[in-house]
Amino acid sequence: MELRLDPDLETFRTEIRAFINEVLPAEMKERQRRKVANNAAVPDLLEWMRILNAHGRSVPHWPEEVGGCGWSPMQLFIFNEELYNADAPEFDWGGTHMLGPVLYTFGSDYLKDKFLPMIREGATMWAQGFSEPGSGSDLASLRTAAELVGDKYIVSGQKIWTSGAAHADWGFFLVRTDKTVKPQRGISFLIIKMDSPGITVRQIPQINGEAHLCEVFLDNVEVPADQLIGEAGMGWTYAKFLLEHERTTSSFIYWSKRELARAKTIALGETIGGRRAADDPAFRARFARIEADLLALEWSVLRVLAHEEFDVPEAAAASVLKIRGSELQQEVTMLQVDAMGAKSLRFFEAAPVPPPAPTDAWPDYAPGRTTVALINRAATIYGGSKQIQKNILAKLAFGL
Amino acid sequence: MDFAKSDIQTMLLDSAERLLSETSGVEYWREQRHGALGFDEGRWAQFAELGWLALPVPEAAGGLDGTIEDIALLNIALGKALATEPYVSTVVLADHVLKQASDEAMALELLGEIAAGSLRVALAHQENGAHPLDTATAGTVARAADGGYVLNGAKLLAVDAPSAARLIVSARIEGEEGLGLFLVPADQAGVALDAYPLVDGTRAADIVLTDVTLPAAALLVGGNRGAEVLQEAIDRASIALMAQAVGAMEACNKVCGAYVQERKQFGTAIGSFQAIQHIMADMFVAAHQARSMLYHALSNADRPEAERAAALSAARIVVGEAGQLVSRNGIQVHGGYGLTDEYAVGHYFRRLMCLEKLYGDVITHTERFGDSIFA
């Protein structure tokens, strides 16, 4: 064991930082930095994918033969960290990080040829249709049914919490193709075009003023059978693969680190009880504790990326990332909110309008902090709630 | 950066596994606790035979020239076994000060004695009311006299001093800036030890120094470098203690994981209840994050002082809190048995409490880390 950082990585970081600085348009960066909404506006997100793709860096984590960069896990870590630090738009995670790996691992040549370039080139937005009104934590109970009739699946049912479905061109869905077997064995993984007849999308108004989450109603939607990924009945396995493949993503480490830096700016700009928030002992102690916890999370991520040998299944170490990562997203955003005191209560529209011009009382960091903190309560709910994660962890680590 | 263990690290851990698994457990701990020194001198001799006492010693003094990672890995093993030997005081702290001593020949000889197991050294720096992380000042005073020094002062909570033949005493040298580090024989005239056990069975002492007369050679590190060397030594000790805490937490988790599967209430193992499972999951998360933070401290161990201190304090916060979360919850899942001296969990609890508080507790390190963030 030898834990000092490899000096070559610092050279790589310098190169990546210069690259992003060169290709990220200044107005796009500014829109990202000042956005009120939690999610990037679709046009910026796709345009950014096209820019990265022009340099062969839109899907660096994919295998080289499908457009990846062949970087080490540490290089990928640095690339992502620099993207966030530069306020670049996020990836369309659904396409690049969730569907992509499932496609190139299990998809037919037809599907790979058709969809991988679309994802890589930023040509499409993707929606993830997993949860249903009656199937949240108990996902395997999902009921949206797909019946094979000739060379088509006829799909009927309802999905919920489908992020960005209103703006998505395509979606990847878990559907039930066999009701006669054990629930997990009857699920299949299907790609569906979102403007197919029979699909209705309703945007759900959220507690932060956004309507990013959607309900998707499917009423006898016809889907070409060749849009089935892999084998019928293997959808559950592929979905688990997808989650395990992205085992460090759920830590949100890059995002939380950037937001902690913003919290520091706020702490230096706002006052608590007449003095700088940064000088308030209670606030400073809380900040120190959160920053220390975030450093621990970062090393926990590195340990998984580097495949440290654990004496428990690696999935247990990944589960820690999800639990602490989601908690820390919430702690960091609440730190921002609390540093602003009552000023955090002002409601700013999340709609894609430019936020008000900054003033002394309302600096450019003010709009958006509470909007993001409010919706961040979701972090400990989606992707397997914190309580489900703890059930899993108790089993993996202790056999309970 | 490499998480895999080197050959020497694998050998160290294999030897630790062999020796410590034979000699640990509640019976052993209780026996040691009631012994004269709080540990077994026979086992200390075995530490020497296995080369553990030579780990950070330079090759020139017959040592292994081990890295801080080597020391950390061995201390994880010592922590798992709740070893009460004065390893950190003698082999981590004192070694570091001796390596910086101006009289190299004398230092090498002493390091050789430490490596052989024939000398134990403890630090006497802390004083009542002083800031635990202040290495720049001391109320104890050294006055130059007859070509040597005369020391007067009072030290508090000198960990492992009762079993040490020599003490490293910090003192302000009259008429000079900074802090001197003096090597003082524990049986020197004018040195009075009030020895007592700590809650984990290790030993400490308050020390009163009354006109303690020393030769000039007793000044190991002069006033210009004393504070810096002491800070480095304490930081290294902190890393070793954190490693012990990580080991103790991981062992405590194993014990608790087994216990909740064994203990039955309402006709079933209590580990089948979600309320217990979620506590156990929290304990695992805490111990895992603690180990991550040990790695963070190790990664920064050779960085410039401000960075090193910030990383260390951040690590001490996470490790300190985690040790308490793990062991307090460990007692909770044991119910009443957790409060008895006859179950391991209470031993982990007391050891982890000591590890959290020595060389700066969570509150102190939170302050120091907060200061570094907003410096």
Keywords:
heterodimer, A: 400 residues, alpha+beta, Butyryl-CoA Dehydrogenase, subunit A, domain 2, Butyryl-CoA Dehydrogenase, subunit A, domain 3, 3 domains, four-stranded antiparallel beta sheet, three-stranded mixed beta sheet, 9 strands, B: 375 residues, Butyryl-Coa Dehydrogenase, subunit A, domain 1, eight-stranded mixed beta sheet, 11 helices, 10 strands
Q: What's the arrangement of secondary structure elements?
A:
The complex is a heterodimer of chains A (400) and B (375).
Chain A: H1 7-23, H2 26-34, H3 42-54, H4 73-85, H5 93-106, H6 109-120, E1 126-129, E2 145-149, E3 152-160, E4 170-176, E5 187-193, E6 199-203, E7 214-224, H7 235-245, H8 253-269, E8 271-272, E9 275-276, H9 281-305, H10 314-339, H11 369-375, H12 386-398
Parallel strand pairs in A: 1-4
Antiparallel strand pairs in A: 2-3, 3-7, 4-5, 6-7, 8-9
Chain B: H1 7-22, H2 26-33, H3 41-49, H4 68-80, H5 87-99, H6 104-116, E1 121-124, E2 141-145, E3 148-159, E4 166-173, E5 180-185, E6 191-197, E7 203-215, E8 219-221, H7 226-262, E9 264-265, E10 268-269, H8 274-299, H9 305-334, H10 344-357, H11 362-373
Parallel strand pairs in B: 1-4, 2-4
Antiparallel strand pairs in B: 2-3, 3-7, 4-5, 5-8, 6-7, 9-10
Helix pairs in contact in B: 1-4, 4-7, 5-6, 5-7, 7-8, 7-9, 7-10, 8-9, 9-10, 9-11
Number of strands of chain A: 9
Tally the helices of chain B: 11
Number of domains of chain A: 3
Would you tell me which CATH topology of the largest domain in chain A applies?
Answer: Butyryl-CoA Dehydrogenase, subunit A, domain 3
Walk me through the structure.
The complex is a heterodimer of chains A (400) and B (375). Helices cover 44% and strands 13% of the residues of chain A. Chain A is α+β, with helices and mostly antiparallel strands and 400 residues long. Chain A has 3 domains: 85 residues, no CATH class; 109 residues, Butyryl-CoA Dehydrogenase, subunit A, domain 2 (Beta Barrel); 152 residues, Up-down Bundle (Butyryl-CoA Dehydrogenase, subunit A, domain 3), CATH 1.20.140. Chain A has a 4-stranded antiparallel sheet, with no helix packed on it. Chain A has a 3-stranded mixed sheet with strand order 1-4-5. The two termini of chain A are 31 Å apart. In chain A, 44% of the residues are buried. The mean pLDDT of chain A is 95. Chain B is of the alpha+beta class and 375 residues long. In chain B, β4 and β5 form a beta hairpin. The radius of gyration of chain B is 21 Å and the shape is globular. The mean pLDDT of chain B is 96. In chain B, strands 1, 2, 3, 4, 5, 6, 7 and 8 form an 8-stranded mixed sheet that branches. In chain B, α1 packs parallel to α4 and α7 runs antiparallel to α8. Chain B folds into 3 domains: 113 residues, Butyryl-Coa Dehydrogenase, subunit A, domain 1 (Orthogonal Bundle), CATH 1.10.540.10; 102 residues, Beta Barrel (Butyryl-CoA Dehydrogenase, subunit A, domain 2), CATH 2.40.110; 147 residues, Butyryl-CoA Dehydrogenase, subunit A, domain 3, CATH 1.20.140.10. Helices cover 51% and strands 17% of the residues of chain B. Classes of the chains: A alpha+beta (400), B alpha+beta (375). The interface between A and B is large, with 49 and 48 residues.
